[in-house]
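DM from R.C. (forwarded with permission)

"hey, sorry to bug you on a friday — could you get me a structure for this? deadline for the figure draft is monday and I only need the backbone to look sensible"
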Amino acid sequence: MRTGMRVAVVAGTLGIALATKTALFQHLQAAGPLPSVSLTKPLQCFPLSLERWTGLETPLTDPRFLYGDDHLSRVYQSGDRRQGFQLWMAYSAKGADRGHHPEVCMRAAGMPEDPRGRKSLPAPGHSQPIQEYRFVRAGEGESLAGFYWYYTLDPPPAESASALQRAYQHFQHRPSSLTIEVFTRIMAEQDVVSAREFALAVDRAAQAILPPGAVRGSQRLPVFLINEGGVR
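My reply, with the result:
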C-alpha cells in the first residue's frame, strides 16, 4: 500500500473513532444530570418530644459546623435529667455532610477513639447498622459514646434513559444525604444501654422525614467513593 493511501486510511479511521466518541459523549450527556433529593420535611420538624426524651434547641454559631443545607442541633433528656444526649443532624443536597466523620472530628477535639468500644447497632428497616464508637480524653477519664449513621437519597433513574446514560449519570452524581450523630457521656454501663435506646428512637423518628428509597449506611467512606464504588 502506498504511503498516501496509508495516511488516508489512518486519517479515516481516526475520523470515524472521533465521530463515534463525540456521538457517544453527546448521547451520555443528553439525559442530563440527576436531580438532588429533598427531605420530606425540614429538620426542625423532627419531634422535640421523642418517646421518653424531651429536646432543647442548641443553636450553632460556629460556621465550621454549618456545612450542608439544613441542620439540627439539640440536647435531649429524660424525666430524671440524669443523662443528656446531643443530637446532630445535617442534610446536604450534594452530599457535603459526608465529608465529616466523628472519628476524625473527635480526634481533632482531643478525644480519640478507643477502638475496643466500636460496635455495630442493628436497627430495623435497613440492612446497614448504626455505628457505635467510644471516645476518651487521655488523662482525664472522660468517656463519650458516639453513634453515627447516614441516609443516601438517590433519585430514581429516568425511564427514558438508556443503560449507558444511567451508568454515566450515576458515575457523575453526588447524591443527597442526611447524616445523624448522637453523643453522650458514659459514667456507667447503663448509660451505654440508654444511649443505644435513644439512637434507635432517633432512627425510628427520622423515617418520617426521609423520602422513599432512602438507604442507611455507616461506612467511613467519602460520598464520592461510595458513589463510584457502588456501596450505598
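R.C.: lifesaver. The chain has two domains: 1-30, 34-229.
me: no worries. Helices lie at 3-30, 102-108, 163-172, 189-206, 223-229.
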